[in-house]
Structure formats: C-alpha cells, structure tokens
Specification:
By secondary structure, the protein is mostly helical. The chain has a single domain, classed as Orthogonal Bundle (Arp2/3 complex 21 kDa subunit ARPC3), CATH 1.10.1760.20. Helix 1 runs antiparallel to helix 2 and helix 2 packs across helix 9. The radius of gyration is 16 Å and the shape is elongated. The two termini are 18 Å apart. The model has no long low-confidence stretch (mean pLDDT 88).
C-alpha cells in the first residue's frame, strides 16, 4: 500500500470514527454535561493496527473532531482549550500502534491509552482551573474521575472489538497490516 492509499484509508477510518462518535456522544449526558459516551476511537485503533504509528496518530487527530465539537465548541471548554482534545486522541493512535508490534492489540490499546489518560487528567484537573477559572466549579475531582472511569470502560470495549476485527482483516489478507498477526 503506498502513502496515498494509507492516507486515504486513514481519512476514511477517521470519518468512520467521527460517525460513530457523533452517534454515541449524546448518550450518558444525563450524568453531567461534560460526560458522554465517546466510541470514536474505533477508527484510531483500526488505523493504528493497519497503517502504523504516523497514520494512527493522524486518524486519532481526525476522530477528535466529534468530541472537539461536543466538548470544545458546544461544551464548557470553548474552541481554544477544547482543541487539546486533538493531540490527546492522537497520542492513543501513536502509542497503541507502536505497542501492537510487540503485544496483542487488546493489550496494546489498553497500554497505549495511558498517555492520553494522563494528558486528559492534566488537562482537566490542572490546566482547566488555571486557564478557565470560570468552569472550575463545574469540573470537580469527582467529574474528572467519572470522565476517566468512563473513558477506561470505553477503551476496554473498543480494545475487545478491535482485536478480532484486525485479526480478521490481516489474516485474510484483505489489507497489509502494520500489526503482525
């Protein structure tokens, strides 16, 4: 697969992630406006396994569009601070892809999400109160913990879904994969 085809597949998987993300982001909002189910990372993890770290990161940045709109443009973070969602999502694509060469995709996705999880914690618990003091009364330690718990539950589900999909695509040679089955 040449670079143009990889780029195109990365964009398609990013679009898939955004469609799933927009579809899932309105679920669970009854708990708190800044907490919503976000399954957009499915595109990131498929791209990370099929195309490698650079394209996994690119797809992660693309799938960040749906949560950026939901939590940045429409949410409490606003467009500038909400933009930090994009590099956070890209981290997961890069790190999970690097790890997929060494361990199973399920494990790689879980460990590969750790940098984004730390980035999310630092963003919400440390940077948000400093740069957005008006929202600090709404983003409490409990809310940060709930966001991270929900995110880890999503990652477990997405890891469980991604591994069999990658194995099927790669073993049947439908596509060349960065991840070695």
């Amino acid at each position: 697969m040449n670079k143009t085809q990889k780029f195109a597949l990365s964009v398609v998987l990013g679009a898939l992630g955004n469609v799933i993300g927009f579809s899932s982001l309105e679920l669970l909002t009854f708990i708190h406006p800044q907490i919503a189910l976000d399954l957009s990372h499915i595109g990131t993890f498929l791209s990370a396994g099929m195309l490698g770290p650079a394209y996994g990161g690119l797809t992660g940045a693309i799938v960040a569009i749906s949560p950026y709109i939901r939590f940045g443009l429409q949410g409490a973070y606003g467009p500038l601070f909400g933009f930090l969602i994009i590099p956070g999502k890209a981290l997961s694509g890069i790190f999970s892809s690097i790890l997929m060469r060494r361990v199973r995709p399920f494990t790689a996705i879980i460990i590969g999400y750790m940098p984004e999880s730390i980035f999310t914690y630092v963003t919400m618990a440390i940077w948000a109160p400093i740069f957005l003091p008006g929202i600090s009364q709404y983003i409490t330690g409990t809310i940060v913990a709930m966001v991270l718990l929900k995110a880890w539950a999503e990652i477990l589900v997405l890891a469980a879904l991604t591994e069999p999909i990658l194995r099927s695509l790669c073993k049947r040679h439908f596509i060349w994969c960065y991840y070695k089955c």
